[in-house]
Amino acid sequence: MMNKTLQAVLLTSMLPFAANAADGMSPWYVGGGVGINNYEPNCDQKTMKTCGDDDPYAWDVFAGFLFNDYFGVELGYRDLGRAEWVDYSNKLNDVGAKGMNLGLVAFWPFANRWSLSAEAGALNYLMSNNKNYGSEYYSDSGVAPYVGAGIGYNITDNLKVQAKYRRYENLDEDKWKTLEMESNYWGLELSYRFGSKTKPIAPVAAVIIADSDNDGVNDDMDQCPDTPSTHKVDANGCTIYQEAEDKFEIEAKFDNNSATVKEASYGDIKDLAEYMSKHPNAEVTIAGHASNMGKADYNMDLSERRAIAVADVLINEYGVAPGKVSSKGYGITRPLIEGSSVEANQANRRIDAHVTGTEKVPVLK
User: Fold this and answer.
1) pLDDT in tens, 301-351
2) Distances in Å between the alpha carbon of 330 and those of 258, 259, 291?
3) In the 8-state DSSP scheme, what is residue 14?
4) pLDDT of 34-85, one tens digit each?
């Protein structure tokens, strides 16, 4: 007989624990089973006078939770079937038990997909006896302990079939003291475990991509593999070039407040023309500058007119193509020497020629 304390102990087995299921597999599973149940006392017992037509077929459904791969808990509902016999008072007994069960299960894998199992728990049963063709009815509820064992085979990672044996004790009708029974059950059950095993990830070999020329672009992307490490490069690993600039200072002589170039200045302009003739792709900008005397606006205009005058000599006297010559006045905005001293005025009153297109040079880091 089960007392209230034992019932409470069994119910505490529902307390949650951390599940250590296989990677990717859920700790939860569900299932159901069918089998044959044999109540004791039964027709094999000499205490029975005759036997009736038994309905020994039992079934159950359940849900389980695995704490790890070897241990778990199951909650379910079981119907143990019915049995009939006529006792010595010539009354027909039609007896059956069913109810909720709660138990602990243990598993022991012993082969590739095979495992043994053991279980223990309690059935909170309702026992009924339709005695004497229903003219007398007895029923009572209680808690019956059970133990079991089984052997199982995993058809897949999720699907498992098991052969089960269970022994139930103390299936009693205590209210009227009409029944004191035990039971043996044999059956098959099928369970489904949720989830799927995570496939192992193949290790990825480390790939080291070299930068042979140390320009910051890996060899697999480098379209210019021999770039000097001192050069700035583009996304393809090729050197970035810029136009080289050659600077000529032209000693241009002008009368006061005049923009007419004196012939004494033609020598420097001729040298510039010959240089450009040797470099067909060259282009020149004539830059005029003024000293810091007088009004800035006037000096700006004067410097520009003088730059135009030098450009005209370059074009008209020495035959440089007009498309290769431009001019610009800067006034007093780009002095070589700050201030308005005699030395500063002489240095700042000048004509410069900036020639580009003669060659390209690499941009350095």
Assistant:
1) 989 998 999 999 999 989 999 999 999 999 989 898 898 888 888 888 888
2) 16, 15, 11
3) G
4) 999 998 865 544 445 555 556 789 999 999 999 998 999 999 999 999 888 7
Q: Which domain holds residue 158?
A: 4-195
- How many of the other CB atoms lie within 10 Å of CB of 341? 12
Question: Do 306 and 327 meet the contact criterion of CB atoms below 8 Å apart?
Answer: no
Q: What's at 123, amino acid-wise?
A: L
Report which DSSP code applies to 100.
E
CA distance 106 to 68: 10
Burial 92-101 (b: 16+ CB within 10 A, else e): bbbbbbbbeb
**CATH, residue 18:** 2.40.160.20
| Closest C-alpha to 119, from 156, 190, 64 | 64
Q: Report d(CA 162, CA 294) in Å as an integer.
A: 112
Statement to judge: residues 105 and 251 lie in one domain = no
Could you tell me the two tokens for 46?
């000499």
Predicted confidence band at 202 (pLDDT cuts at 50, 70, 90)?
low
What is the C-alpha end-to-end distance of the chain, expressed in Å? 93
d(CA 118, CA 104): 8
Sign, Cα dihedral of 113, 116, 121, 123: positive
State the DSSP H helix or E strand holding residue 348, giving kind and residue range, or none if neither: helix 342-348
d(CA 177, CA 258): 140
Q: What's this model's pTM, rounded to 2 decimal places?
A: 0.50
User: What is the DSSP code (8-state) at residue 316?
Assistant: H
Is the backbone peptide bond immediately before 145 cis, with ω within 30 degrees of 0?
Answer: no
Residue 28 forms part of a structural domain: yes
CATH number of the domain where residue 323 is located: 3.30.1330.60
Cβ atoms of 62 and 31 closer than 8 Å = yes
* Domains held by the chain: number: 2
